[in-house]
Amino acid sequence: MAFSGDSSNHLFQLAVRFVNQTNRHLFVTGKAGTGKTTFLKYIRENTFKKLAIVAPTGVAAINAGGVTMHSFFQLPHGSFLPVQQSGWNSNSSFNTPHTLLKNLRLNNDKKVLLQELELLIVDEVSMLRADILDEIDCILRHVRKKQFEPFGGVQMLYIGDLFQLPPVVKNDEWDILRQQYRSPFFFDAQALQQSPPLYLELKKIYRQTDEEFIKVLNNIRNNKTTQADLDLLHKHYLPGYESAENENYITLTTHNAKADTINQAQLEKLNGNISECKAEVTGDFNERAYPADVLLQLKEGAQIMFIKNDKGESRRFYNGKIATISRILSGDIYIRFEGDEHDMLLEKETWRNIKYQYNQEQDMIEEEEVGAFKQYPIRLAWAITIHKSQGLTFERAIIDAGASFAPGQVYVALSRLTSLAGLILYSRIQPSNIHTDERVIEFTRLEKEEDQLAQELHLQQKIYITRSLVQTFDWLKLAEGMEMHYESYETRQVPDKNHCVVWAKGLLDAVLKQQEMADKFTRQLEQLLPNAPEDGYQFLHQRVSAGSTYFLQAMDEMETSIKNHIAEIKAKPKAKKYVTHLQQLSLLPQRKKQQLNQAVQITEGLIKGVNTTEILELVGQKRTEVIKQEAVVEKKTATARLPKGETNRISLQLFKEGKNITEIATIRELAPSTIESHLVSFVKTGEIDVKELVPEDKIATILRTVEELNLPTPGSAPVKEKLGEDYSWIEIKAVLSYREWLQVSKDTN
To answer: pTM of the full predicted structure?
Structure first.
């Protein structure tokens, strides 16, 4: 597969630079096997930008290492019409900007997360509907307070193949949506008409090396299939072909039921007993996002395929690699690949369900695991649906689609193969089966030649540098931080409070004066930048250096003031939490100093004639170093924090003293959602009565819903989905904990 060190893959390298060194919205696509998944993984591990990964479905999100867009943005059910009138039928299943924002319920942590977001990666974008993308645009503009910037200024990276599975929209919904949209595809979202993404297609094919086969696949994608192409494919038309035992063919079919029937029939043919392997599901993990079978039934001799890439150095298997169960001994499962002489012990894999949160100390977006699914990374592989085969690679496959080929399915099915040599067709492919939506073909015409992309990169890098210089002197985040600190004294318990308030007011006044100066300086910069190249950036560098020197001194004074205040207060009783807060406050001037120094480095580079790529690589390297340094500091700080159990008990004690969740959160300087999770943990132990957190009528309804859903491992997500907005996450989680407590009590007695 593709990797960043493949210097011959210039388009891969260009795409990385567009993401890391510009703010340009980007659509990265490519034929099957060109390394789109590898690109996503590389960006995730090699960007300094604060990012989140979302996908249209639960399975796609888990496989991409992200979350669903519905959970990330808390999108309501129903379609979206980007119309501004507030009088739209409120009883309909359609949301509008008015109803969406009116009913939006984002807690402060989620708002901060969205405000700090710099890069949003949308994987499997072929399945994303235009109206849902407009919904996301509406939320980001609103939360980030940037109404006139698409997606509120967040850089969008779309990854996927539009020639594969299309978005799903019901006919009755489309009858209304078509009044606003040319097509359901993401590229026809209204937000993209204002800011279309740059189209970049990865070309180097890592899956197929058969040039003749590659040509056929290209023709199918582009609606240019010839009779010669069909004749070539039909050389592999062998209806009713039955593969030999050691050939390891997998059948691709159109329906789940048919694939399940084939797998079950082949399994029953084998001698021996069935071994059942049950998945371990912990925490929150929506059953619709399960990446593997909850109950895996296996026998010796069963044909299986891997559904995950090997994460080890040896890369023994990949997503779609076929193998055979060679033996099952004492619960251990051994598999053997075709041509190998030795067995491999199969090990379970863990898929993580995560949520994103903003870490203020490190100024980065982090992933927190909220649930996990542990199972062997395999499935029975005599058959699989074409839908589920997307993204997989097979050396041999029987394609059994009958007359039910849908547009796009021919390409998806054929492109799973590494070569024509491994193809068997059970049914002929008719020209009518091969049809790519003309709107997709039209969109692909936006693709530019590689030299045009290089020119565009150079232009966008300059724009990004300009924007970085201007943002250096944006004082809004610093001013808001100091203002929030000053206002926090209303509820904060600190020693010598009046003295602290006076000190904080002086600090805030100083920052507001700096903000006035910074605004004036920004206006000067914006006037200077267009003509800056005329004197080789000399005057620009002079002004940026002078401005940085002035504001660096102000930041030094602010840091010193906070440091002195900490020294005054830390010896006093009950000051520990306040001191911790002050230490976090000091990060604001520290980060502004990093920005100011970086601005001078940029203009120095411009004067010396350093090319934009090198300047931005240096900037990215410096920012990455800062993130790593802060991570080390955070790790050291974390070791000094209270253990989880102890911090939970402090919340319990305050709750037992009669304080409510809001009061506890204020006293402890924690988010209300954190206090809620503390208290829920004690419902499971019986130390808190569930009725203290949830009204009695709701308890009964939630319990009844759990029983109706009949889930193998009850999770809050499916319950919340069924009950809707009238039931909060905390209420559902509390009742699920109560249910566990009842079960434990029953088992004990």
So the answer is: 0.77
